[in-house]
Amino acid sequence: MTTAAAARTVWVGAGPLDADDVVSVAREGTRIALAPEAAKEIRRGREVVELLAGDSSPHYGVSTGFGALAGRRIPPSARARLQRNLVRSHAAGTGPEVEREVIRALMLLRLSTLVTGRTGVRVRTARAYADMLNAGITPVVHEYGSLGCSGDLAPLAHCALAVMGEGTARDANGTLMPAAQALDAAGIAPLDLGEKEGLSLINGTDGMLGMLILALNDLRLLLRTADIAAAMSVEALLGTDAAFADDLQTLRPHPGQSSSAGNLRVLLTGSQVLAEHQRADCGCVQDAYSLRCTPQVHGAARDTLGHAERVASRELASAVDNPVVTADGRLASNGNFHGAPISCVLDFLAISVADVASIAERRTDRVLDPTRNHGLPAFLAADPGVDSGHMIAQYTQAAVVSELKRLATPASVDSIPSSAMQEDHVSMGWSAARKLRRALDGLARVLAVELYTSARALDLRAPLNPAPATGAVRDGLRRTVPGPGPDRFLAPEIEATLRYVVSGRAMAEAEAETGRTLA
């Protein structure tokens, strides 16, 4: 936990969470607390459930079975067992463990719905989730199990199983142990679920939403870093910033395009390399698309990001459960658990990620090609033929881009019927979120190779100096990755460049030099 995270508290139930709250709790371990007004709303919803529990009429989730078994009437004596059995049977995930940050985001978002009072759980149930998060207890959740409809059932059920004191979990140190042991060590009593509580703990889109929010946070950084890498490639290729002029961008007023072009203009200000190109008569009328169209491609991804942020903000203000306790005291079935609004934007983002990576790879390939790089040695090698330079770094980059194209295939257009055709159309939002996380990792690696290669090219353009901003990024990389020379073991240097990118240090170097925040 960072010092800043330790010094603040995220209040749950005082209004919708914002995305920064989710990232802070998920990644930094920021503590949470239930807002005073939350208990009142929770109790109001619980009163409705307890009233209906004694009713002779069937009520889904309270006195009936689930899914295709909803026609089965459950007697009062079996209703507590009904909830326990629901969680146990639905905790059916398989595959690798899901990342800790995803599970923490999922639990926080489920808690944010519980405190609205729309689910009918007890106050102690909501507090148990808060206590687990604050204790750093992370239930083991598996990669496969959610169809993205009726909620992220299996992932949420594994979390509910842990709060019952069953299944497995990792403590704050990451040690794997029985969930009961982790709860006991933290002084948390296992929950004995009441009517409807098992269903309320598993019927939400919290997993896919949590991964969307984390992805948005990561993509904001990567898109700004993409502008930095592109600016460095423009210089490396003796390109021009003329196509990025503001008056040209206003002819097509997409906000993302404008932001990207503005970044490129700032980053390239003061470049001796571009000035030299303008003085020389190279016969170049215009740059290749991978340079000239950077604002259009990067900008389209920014606009997609903006749309996804609006969807995420609406979801953060939502209470997702089925059935739900309404404001007038009804227990009403609904379809709000369907993940379509989230799965669509997850897929949309994966398409944009692949496109940004694709244009970055084209710039890198151009920098390495002696027929197109305006005087640089082949593959930026010290002694081409004896040395291969960055030849295979581009192969690696191309392999990742090819994978990103496969990951851009939408998951949201798929559906597979389940529960004896009761749940006959599903969103596959969890799958869309999982592949987006892999795609963002790939984009970071593609940008790292571009930055790694363009920095070497800028060194080889000496004595011409790059722009102060791009030069600062190049110099920052040089603190951990050496400059041109004979062939070396490239993999560690690519990984070091990747850390430079994902840590935000590359962006920080550029912003410190320009004195402004990149858009």
Care to describe what's here?
The protein is mainly alpha-helical and 519 residues long. The chain has two domains: 3-204, Fumarase/aspartase (N-terminal domain) (Fumarase C, Chain B, domain 1), CATH 1.10.275; 211-514, Fumarase/aspartase (Central domain) (Fumarase C, Chain A, domain 2, Up-down Bundle). It contains 21 helices and nine strands. The chain has helices at residues 3-6, 19-28, 36-53, 79-90, 100-114, 123-135, 153-163, 179-186, 197-202, 206-236, 246-249, 255-268, 272-279, 289-292, 294-316, 340-368, 391-407, 429-460, 468-478, 490-502, 505-514; strands spanning 9-12, 31-34, 94-97, 138-139, 142-144, 168-170, 176-178, 324-325, 331-332. The strands form four sheets. A three-stranded antiparallel sheet has the order 4-6-7. Helix 2 crosses helix 5 (100-114), helix 2 packs across helix 10 (206-236) and helix 10 crosses helix 12 (255-268). The chain is elongated. It starts with a helix and ends in a 5-residue tail after the last helix.
Highlighted features:
21 helices, 2 domains, two-stranded parallel sheet, 5% strand, Fumarase C, Chain B, domain 1, mainly alpha, 519 residues
CATH architecture of the largest domain: Up-down Bundle
The mean pLDDT is 94
Helical percentage: 55-70%
Distance between the termini: 28 Å
Strands ordered across the widest β-sheet: 4-6-7
Instruction: Write down the CATH topology of the largest domain.
Output: Fumarase C, Chain A, domain 2
Structural class: mainly alpha
Tell me the overall shape: elongated
Report the CATH superfamily of the largest domain. Fumarase/aspartase (Central domain)
